[in-house]
Amino acid sequence: MISDFEFVQLHATMADEFLNNFKIPDYILVPESKVEEIEECGLLVPKCPVLVFVNSKSGGQLGGDLLQTYRTLLNEKQVFLYVYNRPGLDITNLLNVYHISAYV
Q1: What span, in angstroms and rounded, lies between the C-alpha atoms of 84 and 25?
Q2: Residue 83 and residue 39: Cα distance in Å, rounded?
Q3: Using an 8 Å Cβ cutoff, are 63 and 52 in contact?
Q4: What is the DSSP letter of 60?
Q5: β-strands 79-82, 52-55: how paired?
Q6: Residues 66, 81: contact at Cβ < 8 Å?
Q7: Over 60: is that where the pLDDT of 20 sits?
Q8: 73: buried, middle or exposed (CB in 10 Å: 19+, 13-18, 0-12)?
Q9: Which of 26, 44, 48, 102 is the most exposed place for a label (fewest CB within 10 A)?
Q10: Residue in 63, 103, 104 with CA at minimum distance from that of residue 82
Q11: Are the beta carbons of 56 and 81 closer than 8 angstroms?
Q12: Each residue of 33-51: pLDDT tens digit?
């Protein structure tokens, strides 16, 4: 049987491992940044990387809270504030600004 402390530690480790499936490391997002490695398995490469676009005006005005939460859980550089109806800015243009290829 494990102690309460060990249980909490195990749970936190499992949560971190789960989030690492989605978190994009800086060396992928930022040109000329240092490559991150994990000793056991080599490069840190997410299994299912995501980009997050938060509309600050939707969801009962909770966009600011969502933005902060996602930036805390993921790499803040993969979470974007999307301002609805901003002239000349839609998802496709935003992806082009960051040189990201995607089907929208």
Answers
A1: 27
A2: 40
A3: no
A4: T
A5: parallel
A6: no
A7: yes
A8: middle
A9: 48
A10: 63
A11: yes
A12: 777 665 555 566 788 888 8
How far apart, in whole angstroms, are the C-alpha atoms of residue 25 and residue 40? Answer: 17
Token reading at 76: 């803040």
Question: What is the tens place of the pLDDT at every residue in 81-96?
Answer: 876 655 555 666 656 6
Q: Which amino acid is at 64?
A: G
- What backbone torsions phi and psi does residue 23 show, to the nearest 5 degrees? -75, 125
Strand partners, 53: 80
Residue with tokens 């933005």: 67
User: What's at 35, amino acid-wise?
Assistant: V
Is pTM, for the whole model, over 0.70? no
Give the domain ranges of the chain. Answer: 1-49, 51-104
